[in-house]
Design a protein that fits this description.
Length: 191
Protein backbone atom coordinates (compact mmCIF):
# COMPACT_ATOMS: atom_id res chain seq x y z
CA UNK A 1 0.00 0.00 0.00
CA UNK A 2 1.21 3.48 -0.84
CA UNK A 3 1.68 6.15 1.79
CA UNK A 4 -1.07 8.79 1.66
CA UNK A 5 0.34 12.27 2.15
CA UNK A 6 -2.31 14.97 1.78
CA UNK A 7 -4.15 12.72 -0.65
CA UNK A 8 -1.05 11.98 -2.76
CA UNK A 9 -0.15 8.30 -2.85
CA UNK A 10 3.61 7.81 -2.51
CA UNK A 11 5.51 4.53 -2.89
CA UNK A 12 7.46 3.16 0.04
CA UNK A 13 10.06 1.33 -2.06
CA UNK A 14 13.71 2.07 -1.39
CA UNK A 15 16.15 3.32 -4.01
CA UNK A 16 17.33 -0.20 -4.89
CA UNK A 17 13.77 -1.57 -5.01
CA UNK A 18 12.75 1.29 -7.30
CA UNK A 19 15.75 0.61 -9.55
CA UNK A 20 14.72 -3.03 -9.90
CA UNK A 21 11.17 -2.00 -10.81
CA UNK A 22 12.52 0.38 -13.43
CA UNK A 23 14.83 -2.23 -14.96
CA UNK A 24 11.91 -4.62 -15.16
CA UNK A 25 9.77 -1.93 -16.81
CA UNK A 26 12.47 -1.26 -19.42
CA UNK A 27 13.01 -4.98 -20.06
CA UNK A 28 9.27 -5.50 -20.55
CA UNK A 29 8.90 -2.37 -22.74
CA UNK A 30 6.29 -0.98 -20.40
CA UNK A 31 5.03 2.59 -20.83
CA UNK A 32 5.27 4.09 -17.38
CA UNK A 33 5.45 7.48 -15.77
CA UNK A 34 7.66 8.04 -12.76
CA UNK A 35 6.83 11.02 -10.55
CA UNK A 36 9.48 12.12 -8.08
CA UNK A 37 7.19 13.68 -5.49
CA UNK A 38 8.87 16.49 -3.60
CA UNK A 39 7.07 18.60 -0.97
CA UNK A 40 6.34 21.45 -3.42
CA UNK A 41 4.71 19.07 -5.88
CA UNK A 42 2.63 17.40 -3.17
CA UNK A 43 1.57 20.77 -1.82
CA UNK A 44 0.74 22.03 -5.33
CA UNK A 45 -1.30 18.92 -6.08
CA UNK A 46 -3.41 19.66 -3.02
CA UNK A 47 -4.62 22.75 -4.83
CA UNK A 48 -4.94 21.24 -8.30
CA UNK A 49 -7.30 18.27 -8.67
CA UNK A 50 -6.04 17.43 -12.17
CA UNK A 51 -2.42 17.27 -10.98
CA UNK A 52 -3.41 15.18 -7.98
CA UNK A 53 -5.28 12.70 -10.16
CA UNK A 54 -2.40 12.52 -12.60
CA UNK A 55 0.17 11.82 -9.86
CA UNK A 56 -2.07 9.20 -8.31
CA UNK A 57 -2.37 7.48 -11.68
CA UNK A 58 1.41 7.33 -12.21
CA UNK A 59 2.88 3.84 -12.00
CA UNK A 60 5.72 4.93 -9.73
CA UNK A 61 5.66 7.87 -7.29
CA UNK A 62 8.85 8.19 -5.29
CA UNK A 63 9.34 10.05 -2.00
CA UNK A 64 11.59 12.87 -3.21
CA UNK A 65 13.10 14.47 -0.15
CA UNK A 66 13.61 14.01 3.54
CA UNK A 67 10.47 16.05 4.29
CA UNK A 68 8.32 13.56 2.38
CA UNK A 69 9.98 10.59 4.13
CA UNK A 70 9.47 12.31 7.47
CA UNK A 71 5.79 13.05 6.75
CA UNK A 72 5.15 9.46 5.64
CA UNK A 73 6.84 8.02 8.73
CA UNK A 74 4.96 10.45 10.95
CA UNK A 75 1.69 9.18 9.43
CA UNK A 76 2.74 5.60 10.20
CA UNK A 77 3.87 4.41 6.77
CA UNK A 78 7.08 2.34 6.42
CA UNK A 79 8.88 4.71 4.07
CA UNK A 80 12.57 4.40 4.85
CA UNK A 81 14.49 6.58 2.43
CA UNK A 82 14.13 9.29 -0.15
CA UNK A 83 14.36 8.51 -3.86
CA UNK A 84 15.16 11.69 -5.78
CA UNK A 85 15.25 12.33 -9.51
CA UNK A 86 18.99 12.96 -9.61
CA UNK A 87 19.67 9.82 -7.53
CA UNK A 88 17.58 7.77 -9.97
CA UNK A 89 19.41 9.25 -12.97
CA UNK A 90 22.82 8.58 -11.43
CA UNK A 91 21.87 5.03 -10.48
CA UNK A 92 20.36 4.25 -13.88
CA UNK A 93 23.30 5.50 -15.97
CA UNK A 94 25.67 2.57 -15.24
CA UNK A 95 22.81 0.11 -15.80
CA UNK A 96 21.97 1.80 -19.10
CA UNK A 97 25.65 1.63 -20.10
CA UNK A 98 25.89 -2.06 -19.30
CA UNK A 99 22.64 -2.94 -21.04
CA UNK A 100 23.29 -0.57 -23.96
CA UNK A 101 20.01 1.22 -23.45
CA UNK A 102 18.90 4.33 -25.31
CA UNK A 103 18.26 7.46 -23.26
CA UNK A 104 16.59 10.71 -24.30
CA UNK A 105 17.46 13.72 -22.15
CA UNK A 106 14.73 16.38 -22.43
CA UNK A 107 14.86 19.66 -20.58
CA UNK A 108 16.86 22.60 -19.19
CA UNK A 109 18.30 25.56 -21.07
CA UNK A 110 19.73 24.96 -24.58
CA UNK A 111 23.00 22.99 -24.43
CA UNK A 112 22.62 21.78 -20.86
CA UNK A 113 20.97 18.40 -21.53
CA UNK A 114 23.59 17.68 -24.25
CA UNK A 115 26.40 18.52 -21.85
CA UNK A 116 24.85 16.40 -19.12
CA UNK A 117 24.43 13.47 -21.52
CA UNK A 118 27.96 13.84 -22.89
CA UNK A 119 29.48 13.87 -19.42
CA UNK A 120 27.36 10.91 -18.37
CA UNK A 121 28.34 8.96 -21.49
CA UNK A 122 32.04 9.66 -20.86
CA UNK A 123 31.71 8.34 -17.33
CA UNK A 124 29.48 5.40 -18.25
CA UNK A 125 30.18 4.53 -21.90
CA UNK A 126 27.80 2.12 -23.57
CA UNK A 127 24.41 3.83 -23.80
CA UNK A 128 23.06 5.70 -26.83
CA UNK A 129 21.60 9.13 -26.28
CA UNK A 130 19.87 12.12 -27.75
CA UNK A 131 19.00 15.38 -26.06
CA UNK A 132 16.81 18.45 -26.49
CA UNK A 133 16.29 21.60 -24.46
CA UNK A 134 13.14 22.32 -22.52
CA UNK A 135 12.14 25.69 -23.96
CA UNK A 136 10.35 24.49 -27.10
CA UNK A 137 7.29 26.31 -28.40
CA UNK A 138 3.88 24.83 -29.11
CA UNK A 139 4.82 24.86 -32.82
CA UNK A 140 8.11 23.05 -32.20
CA UNK A 141 6.60 20.39 -29.99
CA UNK A 142 5.28 17.97 -32.65
CA UNK A 143 8.70 17.60 -34.31
CA UNK A 144 10.35 17.16 -30.91
CA UNK A 145 7.86 14.41 -30.05
CA UNK A 146 8.57 12.78 -33.43
CA UNK A 147 12.31 12.91 -32.72
CA UNK A 148 11.77 11.13 -29.41
CA UNK A 149 9.41 8.59 -30.98
CA UNK A 150 11.90 7.81 -33.76
CA UNK A 151 14.77 7.43 -31.32
CA UNK A 152 12.79 4.79 -29.40
CA UNK A 153 14.35 5.50 -26.01
CA UNK A 154 14.37 2.90 -23.24
CA UNK A 155 14.43 5.81 -20.80
CA UNK A 156 13.13 9.34 -21.16
CA UNK A 157 14.47 11.77 -18.57
CA UNK A 158 12.21 14.83 -18.45
CA UNK A 159 13.63 17.90 -16.74
CA UNK A 160 11.06 20.61 -17.42
CA UNK A 161 10.51 21.50 -13.77
CA UNK A 162 7.51 20.49 -11.71
CA UNK A 163 4.62 20.34 -12.40
CA UNK A 164 5.13 21.06 -16.13
CA UNK A 165 7.12 17.83 -16.57
CA UNK A 166 4.38 15.77 -14.88
CA UNK A 167 1.70 17.13 -17.21
CA UNK A 168 4.02 16.71 -20.22
CA UNK A 169 4.89 13.08 -19.44
CA UNK A 170 1.26 12.24 -18.81
CA UNK A 171 0.12 13.63 -22.15
CA UNK A 172 2.93 11.74 -23.94
CA UNK A 173 2.49 8.30 -22.40
CA UNK A 174 1.97 7.08 -25.97
CA UNK A 175 5.72 7.46 -26.47
CA UNK A 176 5.69 4.03 -24.87
CA UNK A 177 8.74 4.36 -22.72
CA UNK A 178 9.81 4.72 -19.12
CA UNK A 179 9.56 8.48 -18.44
CA UNK A 180 11.01 9.96 -15.31
CA UNK A 181 10.52 13.52 -14.06
CA UNK A 182 13.98 14.69 -13.07
CA UNK A 183 13.56 18.45 -12.35
CA UNK A 184 16.84 20.31 -12.52
CA UNK A 185 19.04 17.18 -12.65
CA UNK A 186 20.68 18.07 -15.99
CA UNK A 187 21.89 21.37 -14.56
CA UNK A 188 23.62 19.39 -11.81
CA UNK A 189 25.01 16.72 -14.15
CA UNK A 190 26.27 19.27 -16.68
CA UNK A 191 28.20 20.89 -13.83
N1 LIG B 1 12.86 24.10 -17.41
C1 LIG B 1 12.65 23.77 -18.74
N2 LIG B 1 11.60 24.32 -19.40
C2 LIG B 1 10.74 25.19 -18.81
C3 LIG B 1 10.93 25.51 -17.44
C4 LIG B 1 12.01 24.94 -16.77
O1 LIG B 1 13.40 22.99 -19.30
O2 LIG B 1 9.81 25.65 -19.47
C5 LIG B 1 13.98 23.49 -16.71
C6 LIG B 1 14.94 24.46 -16.05
O3 LIG B 1 15.88 24.93 -17.00
C7 LIG B 1 15.57 23.59 -15.00
C8 LIG B 1 14.43 22.63 -14.63
O4 LIG B 1 13.48 22.73 -15.66
O5 LIG B 1 16.63 22.84 -15.53
C9 LIG B 1 13.73 23.01 -13.33
O6 LIG B 1 14.61 22.91 -12.32
P1 LIG B 1 14.15 23.20 -10.83
O7 LIG B 1 15.27 22.76 -9.99
O8 LIG B 1 13.61 24.59 -10.72
O9 LIG B 1 12.89 22.26 -10.74
P2 LIG B 1 12.49 21.20 -9.71
O10 LIG B 1 13.64 20.25 -9.59
O11 LIG B 1 12.19 21.97 -8.46
O12 LIG B 1 11.29 20.62 -10.36
Amino acid sequence: MRADILGIKVDKETMSETLLKLQEAVNNHQAIQVVTANPELIYGAGKDARLKQLINSAQIVTPDGVGVVWAAKHLGYPVVERVTGIDLVEALLPVAAEKQWRIFFLGSQPGVAERAAQKAAEKHPGFQWQAAHGYFSREEEPSLVEQIRNFKPDLLFVGLGAPRQEFWMFSHLDLNTVSIGVGGSFDALAG
